[in-house]
Amino acid sequence: MTSGWGVWALLVLAVPGGCLPPGGLLFPFGLEQGDAELEPGDDVNSPPLDLSTPLRFYGSSIYSLYVATNGIIAVSKPTGEEEYLGQLPLSFGGIAPFLADLDTTGGRGKVFYREDSSPHVLQLAADYIKRGFPNASFDPNSVVIVTWDSVNNSQKPDMYSRNTFQAVLASSDSSSYAVFLYPEDGLQFYATHSKNANEKNLATVGFSEASTKYLFWVTPGSYNTVANDEESIRNLHQSSNSGKKGIWVFELGSSSSSIEPAKILHSPDSLEYGNYEQHQDVTSKPPISYQDSIEISEQEVPYDVPSRGDIEQHITYRVPQPAAEDYLQSPNQPVTRPPPAKPRLPTAKTPPRQFQHQQFPQQHPQVIDVEEFDETGIVFRYNTDFQQTCANNRHQCSAHAVCQDYPNGFCCSCLAGYTGNGKQCVAEGSPQRVNGKVKGRIFVGNNPVPIVFENTDLHSYVVMNHGRAYTAISTIPEVLGYSLLPLASVGGVIGWMFAVEQQGYKNGFSITGGEFTRQADVTFLGNNEKLIIKQKFSGIDEHGHLTISTELEGKVPEIPFGASVQIEPYTELYQSSSSVITSSSTREYTVTEPERDGISATYTAAYQWRQTITFDECIYDDSRHAVSSTQQLSVDSVFVLYNRDEQILRYAMSNSVGPISDGSADINRNPCYTGTHSCDTNAACRPGTGNRYTCECSVGFRGDGRVCYDIDECLEQPTVCGSNAVCNNQPGTFRCECVEGYQFSADGRTCVAVERITNHCVTGTHTCDIPQRAQCVYTGASSFICTCLAGFSGDGRSCADVDECQQDRCHPDAFCYNTPGSFSCQCKAGYRGDGFQCVPGELEKTKCQSEQEQTFSPRGPRPIGQFIPQCDVYGNYLPTQCHASTGYCWCVDRDGNEVDGTRSGPGIQPPCLSTAAPPIVIGPSVRPDTIPLHPGTHLLYAQSGKIEHVPLEGNGMKKSDAQVFLHVPNKVIIGVGYDCVDKVVYWTNISGPSISRASVHGGEPTSIIKTDLGSPEGIAVDHLGRNIFWTDSQLDRIEVAKLDGSQRRVLFDTGLVNPRAIVADPVRGNLYWTDWNREAPKIETSYLDGTNRRVLVKDDLGLPNGLTFDTYTSTLCWVDAGTKRVECMNPTQLSRRKILEGIQYPFSITSYGKNLFYTDWTRDAVIAVDRTISKENDNLQPHKRSRLYGITTAWTQLFKLFYSLSGHNYCTVNNGGCTHLCLATPGGRSCRCPDNTVGVDCIERN
């Protein structure tokens, strides 16, 4: 190794112009090292850096990263800097070695990045990580190195103040670590200035998990702050958590959902990883030696650090060692450091954890600042030159515990009547509930496709005084459910936590307080399949329930559908030592297969079980160590079941913990230990001599122990919660809740008025000019800024139109027409051109104008009955052409050709759509962008090149608040759909045909499908299966695709002439559409997978344009421009009901509550109809009159769609187990492959 390092160091130094590692700390970087260089700029992000080895971050796997100018590495594509600078958490998630407004424009620094798997870099990364985590066994596969070299302050650049720092991310197959490196003199500024105000924003160092989108809200991810005040930032190069200045090491949540900092609080002797010296004699350093005792003196450790000015210069500094009085021990007594308190995950009541770190002051004794947080969010600050006592750490104990001081620290102990480890306590004998989530990636048998599931619910109920635990895991696919039956220990760990305790022995909760991590390795004997179970218990939540997260990964043997599994009672030995508990055993189970020909096959199988449980324990109370290091868990009455109808996996078992069984039958037979007592479920069983016992009601209950009644504390103590609060009685306890408008103060008990944060841009309470002239930009808290749109000038609160015609923007031979926010140019008579360039000559006539001119030729009289084409003012064919003599009308395409199936008799005009886009506006046009919708339910309706919205109040329209949601100039929008899960609007465009989408929260629209389209018209969203369906009247087909436009598949391309409206019923798995073929109009239906196609309505139809399905009442309604009616029916009963007759020319329809809303071409309006009384009750006519097209309802609350309805969509969870398209049917789902799947690994099945 010595020679290898020497050669490598020489190679680095021999590279001309290569970046030398300043401060002897940084990994080699620069273009010569194979780095990519980020483009110069103020807010630049790299393309996605795809990783060869996934990064394990907050318990998730990250497959690509984004490097940003502003000192962050993002785990998803970052937003604009105005949305995240100066604050954590980051909505997109990221790693921030120095989050600030940085700039590399004009040679003001560079940013380099690469992924590296060369042996010397992997070894160097492993050495750094070993420094911070000496007990970790870590062998990285790849390393990501990001270097910010001499970057500058964005707003106040200074050629002399530059920052250099580096982040190194190392990953193996199972874990990932981060190393932050801050060389000497590397940080020369610690804050940047706001772009919108002369405010100073301090940099931030930390980690942030990406936000999680739920059905109708977004939850910010966990985040951890390393430094966010000037003193901490200033001392980053002088501080450490790994024992050496400027080196910070963190585990990135490999097996849990938290970031773990290194906790090395003293510097090992003469270690110097990463010190690149300019000498040939480069030698490796001796291995790290860790002592149990600390020398009580200030030790001088030489460090060779090349400075920026002179590489040959050497600097020596002192590493102070802890003084004896820091720990209140004699010089001869070994010093044992208490383990630092484990960082709490941030919650709504818990601020982000500030990691502790080591300071290296030059002349003063070492002081370590630490912040702890109690459950109410109170910050307790202390430093380690004082004794840790109960006086400043009482908050770490449970409210049902006492704190006791010991010579070297403090410990917490539960009060009488409670059980636990002192930090977490619950009432003895009271039933307990455990809630959590399960995710997994499991191969079953020989199936090459894994079963992947996420966010699956786990619920457990424990009868503590019987030691019996009932666990249920929901929505486990049938293909996996039976094969997981043998793994009762997935829920068995909950049984161990609350096992009945024999005298002198403790269950898991008494030892850990329900805060621990567990990894179990399961090896199935025979075929050698392996499964890894990772579980994290996070203690008691605000509802008094224990929380757990579970991850399953590996392979299990296949158990046939319908089989049963029996597990005999078993025992297991638990070995404990120093915060670690281990156990291993071999377990057998018996499988009875479903009966075939009157015979049920039975076989026995086995697996080896190894598990490790790690937790934090209090080391100061010697009495805790009196518990036997070896305990036996006895498990009986094991029950396992998979319910295929409910897709629920159930485990149940009874548990007790005690000594190793020797066959004796005295104390072990006490009913308290066997669960055969007659105590109430809310009582504790107290063993006596022999078989005698007594029952004692748990805290919060009264009675004789055999029957216990809940105490209503709210009734007996009316003022227990204080003012501005209400008391809610709960079994065994009570809960205080602040009334609306109040929240708990720092003491966790007093309710104080809430200072509400309002996003004025969303609520519409901002002071910006109207959306047609200005834009409101949210800047955090309750702040916002106003900016004028293009074509307007002002301060954003008042914007005036810019008269571009005063600026001579048009050609001298053209007229200029100023419009709000824009202008247009038109050549004068006798000239032709675009208005910017005009040349003499007349405009060339269009095809329609030429044909029209030939009809009126002066050569002779026009033949009687000759057809004359009709053109619009721009020379395009009108979409509807009519014969003046016969009265027949038909639709034409943009070239004037008749569309098949559209010719109507005299007096009836077919609903033709114009494929010609509106004329292009010369000069600045309206920006294609969305204006965020206010909270609430809205109607969305299309009007040529825009989508407008009107809020719904009750069942009616709030017409005064109607305004534009989306501008898409030069487009003809026809169909509109809405995804109520992600709150995204989808629409079809028939000019330059495409399908696009945009978020209701604002932002630019994106086109998701732009090829192989003719005239896309109707669109429907399957919000459960995450698919879209659309009709194409030119290609005469119906297609389906995923919401992002991928995986397209043609469902129908026969039996269609003029398909238009389409609607999905995802809950029941049905699809409906109209075809206004003039010869045979019809309404059809099928399952969402295209099977069971049939005609639903074919009689008494004219021009069925619009269609809607009311999920609540299972009612299908349509509007018909031929019969002039609104009609409804139940598709399962086939009886039709006329809602309204005599309407004019309806196009599209939607429903909300008791009302139907349809658009009308004659009235240019949205019409509301009360279907309960068959009467029109309101109408909305937009300010600018033109044809209205598609209309849909944007729901504000999605929960009704799930919890108010019967039925189930089997594609909702895990994509229904499909590799590609999952298409629901009334009784299940079909897995389908997209068209053109050459080279795609896709499996089709029902």
Automatic annotation (TrEMBL):
SMART domains named among the record's database cross-references: EGF (SM00181), EGF_CA (SM00179), G2F (SM00682), LY (SM00135), NIDO (SM00539), TY (SM00211)
Annotated Thyroglobulin type-1 domain residues: 845-912
GO cellular component term, pick one: plasma membrane
LDL-receptor class B repeats: 983-1025, 1026-1068, 1069-1113
Signal sequence residues: 1-19
CDD domains cross-referenced by the UniProt entry: EGF_CA, nidG2, TY
Entries under InterPro entries matching the protein: 6-blade_b-propeller_TolB-like, cEGF, Cueball_EGF_LRP_Nidogen, EGF, EGF-like_Ca-bd_dom, EGF-type_Asp/Asn_hydroxyl_site, EGF_Ca-bd_CS, G2_nidogen/fibulin_G2F
Oligomeric form and interacting partners: Interacts with FBLN1. Interacts with LGALS3BP. Interacts with PLXDC1. Interacts with SVEP1.
Residues in NIDO domain copies: 97-255
Compartments in which it is found: Secreted, Extracellular space, Extracellular matrix, Basement membrane
Protein task: Sulfated glycoprotein widely distributed in basement membranes and tightly associated with laminin. Also binds to collagen IV and perlecan. It probably has a role in cell-extracellular matrix interactions.
Alphabetically ordered keywords of this record: Basement membrane, Calcium, Cell adhesion, Disulfide bond, EGF-like domain, Extracellular matrix, Glycoprotein, Repeat, Secreted, Signal, Sulfation
Domain Nidogen G2 beta-barrel stretches: 430-667
Any single Pfam family the record assigns to this protein: EGF_CA
Annotated protein name in UniProt: Nidogen-1
